[in-house]
Structures are given as structure tokens and as C-alpha cells.
Amino acid sequence: MKIKFLDLNRQYKTIKKEIEKAIHRVLDVGNFIGGSEVESFEKEVAGFCGSRYALSLNSGTDALYLSLKALGVKSGDEVITTPFTFFATAEAIANTGARPIFIDIEKDSFNIDPQKIAEKLAQLKKLNKLKKLKAILPVHLFGQVANMGAIMKIAKKYKIKVVEDAAQSFGAKIRLQVSSSRFQEKRAGAIGNVGCFSFFPSKNLGAYGDGGMVLTNDQNIAATINLLKNHGSSINDKYKNLIIGTNSRLDTIQAAILKIKLKHINEWNGKRIKIAQYYNKHLQGVIGITTPSIDNNIFHQYTIRVSSELRDKLASFLSKKGIPTMIYYFLPLHLQPVFKYFGNKVGDFPESERAAREVLSLPIYPELTKVEQDFILKKIKDFYEK
Ligand SMILES: *Cc1c(COP(=O)(O)O)cnc(C)c1O
Hints:
386 residues; alpha/beta; Aspartate Aminotransferase, domain 2; 2 domains; 7-stranded mixed beta sheet; 12 helices; 14 strands; 41% helix; binds pyridoxal-5'-phosphate
């Protein structure tokens, strides 16, 4: 059997008619930038996620970059984030001129460790060096929401803004305490001051091209991002440039496609969770494998831990059997050549470095069949029985 790590064509086949109708609708109207498709998509996402404003953008990377700009992050500032993430997270910080301050991850969730954020902030305060720190940028890695309860509490205490990198977690939920006796379910991206999504094709909610979005409840941030994404000019008065911006708009065709896909996202995320539960059930007993947590997770990736001596051997064994796997991520960001100038070195963030040696992501997507899942599980068990 030959399995694909991700097969977008299978999903396309299930929505082909709807998608083609939507694309033709845009072609017939002939409006390719902005317009009612984009506006209604924004409203639908705001409603789905429970956020006052949703601003469509060209990518997750610009969602992060423009969010930081809108919060006033600039050259010489600092932003706390995780070193165990996709490069764009820290790249967006660096592009504002600010410096990413890395904080190590939790062992179990692969997400930034709130305890270590608290320690860092206490230390900076003691040294009277808190002034430059403008934001905390947690990432909900692999579809699992970071410990937002603890992160929001710390941010509030130090009056620091929170920007969520929710690129991998569209639709994920977490129960948060909103008052002394009340809990509420919140969607990833709608918890911090700003939340950022990517609609890169391989993401849980993926366009047929690039796309992104920002959520916020703050009218000023929303207004600023609306200017920034359009050369610093308002859509209604486009020849008056008020600030220096970018061209970061979402295409109308992509908005029309995403509107179709949004209707299916709960069903698709649900299927991912089912597969993850099935994998967990069968892999939990395999000595040498640590399975991921199901809590607050919509499984953008299904990522196990394997001892570093066996990880690459397992990957190449599976590859020979027709099962591709991926390593997200090989190199934590503090060790990326481009970030060396901050003086980071091996050993600075041991949990992130250990994760980089141990992680292995298995195929997971809503259309992955039971037969394929069983084949993958069987071959993993074969490897450990050898
Ligand atoms: C995909 C991704 C991004 C960037 O999104 P693009 O739409 O590709 O620009 C940022 N952060 C994380 C964690 C991602 O997975």
C-alpha cells in the first residue's frame, strides 16, 4: 500500500461541485479583490470563532506581522514566543524590528510553558528591563491550544498584549475560567488581544492558494489592520494613504472557496480527532512511543515521540513500507543560523531541543481511510516487534 502524507485531492472531490460553482460566481461578477464574498467570509469566521472583528489577509505570516505592527511593536522591542514552531512565527517578530525572546515548551503539549514565561517576566522586572517587552506570542502547535488560561493571567498581571498564532488550530476549543465561578468555551484565535490564522492549503481550513486572517475584539486594532493591509489607505478612500502599510489582502476567489470549506470544518476536525483517538488507542501500549494529548486538539498534525536513537530508523522503516512521515520541526528556531546573532546556543531550551530529536508526525487527514489507518498502525507495531 502507498499512503500519502496529505491528500488534498480527496477532499476536493467531495466538494468539487460547490467549489466550482463558487469560483464561477466570482468569475461572472468579475470582482477579484475585496467585495461581498470577502466581507461575508469575514463575518462568518467572526461568528464561528466568537470574535467581534475578523480581517481577511493574504497569509498567516502577514496576519502575525500586521498584528504586531498594529499593537505598535517596533524596532528595539521584544516579543516572547516559543522556539518550537514554524519559522514564520519568529520571522514576523523579527520583521517588525523587534527581537524574539524564546521561552521553552512544556514536555507534554509541545506548547510554550506558562511557568517559564512567568519566571522570565519576574526576572526582567527585577532587572528593570520590562519596558521593551510588548507582547507574548503563543503558538497552538499541531492543533492543540496552548495553556491560554495561565498565559492570559500572566499577560494581565504585567499588562502585556497577547497575539495567538492559531495558524494550525482553526476551530480548536478550550474551556477557560472567565470569572470566579464561570467557565466558557473559547475558540483558538479568539482568546488573546489578537489571533492569527493561516489558510495555507495544508492547514485544517485551507484555501487553494495563500490566505490568512486576524481576529480581534479591539476596534482600534481592527481599524489599523484594515489600513495596514491595504497600503495604509481605507477601502472607501483608497487614494489617501494615512500610514505605511503593505499589500496583504485576501483574493476574492480564495474567500469564496473558504466560505464553502468553513461549512465543513467541524465535521473535518471531528474526523481528525476520531483518527487521533484510534491511533492513541492502538499506540498507547507500544513501549517506546509517547502519544499526543487529545485535549483541546484538532490534530493539524498527529505527532508522536520516539526515542532519539530509534526515531529516524522508524521513519525510514515506514517509508520503505509506503508510509511517509514528517519531522516538525528538525531545528528549534533559537538554533536557526539567522537567529544566531542573538547569542542563542545549544542547551538553552532543552525541551525544544529534545522534541526536535524525538518527534515524528504520522499521516492524518479527514479522508484517511480505516484501512490506511490500520496499515499504518500495523507497520509501526511490526517495527517494534522486530
Ligand atoms: C503555516 C504557519 C504560519 C504561516 O502561515 P502562512 O499562511 O503560510 O504564511 C505561521 N505559523 C505557524 C505555526 C504555521 O503553521
